[in-house]
Amino acid sequence: MTSSQKVDAFIENSGQWIDELKLLRQIFNSTELIENFKWGAPIYTINNKNVVGMVGFKNHLGIWFYQGVFLKDAKGILINAQKGKTKGLRQLRINKGDKIEKTIVLNYTIEAIENCKAGKEIKPENKKTIIPTVLKEAFKEDTTLSDLFKKLTPGKQREYAEFITTAKQETTKLNRLEKIRPMIKNGVGLHDKYKKS
């Protein structure tokens, strides 16, 4: 299935937001952006960089500007949907019944494209993974487990470390270790089964 076909299916299965998503797709495709389908949603890119995405939620439609922090936002319509968590991402929310101002969306998109071409971006911080003692001890006993853990992506390593660290009692930490041991050996992340391909 091509990206275009995936976006077609996504829109057709978006219930109350079908017309709005079709309009946004038309706006984004009128630019030089390339249509992709990532993380279960349409994402529009240039030079392999995410510029804008769209998704319908229960109460609103979200237009995500990946480096939206650099947009002038003269209309004051962008929000940081996850304050303290996201640094560059900004969202334009559209509630059911609101009219999508095509010119505004297009102008913001064109500015986002120009910012991307100019190299304006906030890169995600590389968080250092702190390995809990329980896991360090397991690595000493089982070097294969240690080697396989090191082959995981930094994000997967962090998920496992946090999973153990967040347990309050030692017994719970040991139980969690036993739960994740076969997952690490299989090279999968803690939350992989919940992630859409």
TrEMBL record:
Sequence ranges assigned to domain YdhG-like in this UniProt record: 17-112
Coiled coil spans: none
Pfam families according to UniProt: DUF1801, OmdA
Transmembrane stretches, start-end: none
SUPFAM superfamilies with a match to the protein in the record: YdhG-like
Name of this protein: YdhG-like domain-containing protein
Species whose genome carries this gene: Patiriisocius marinistellae
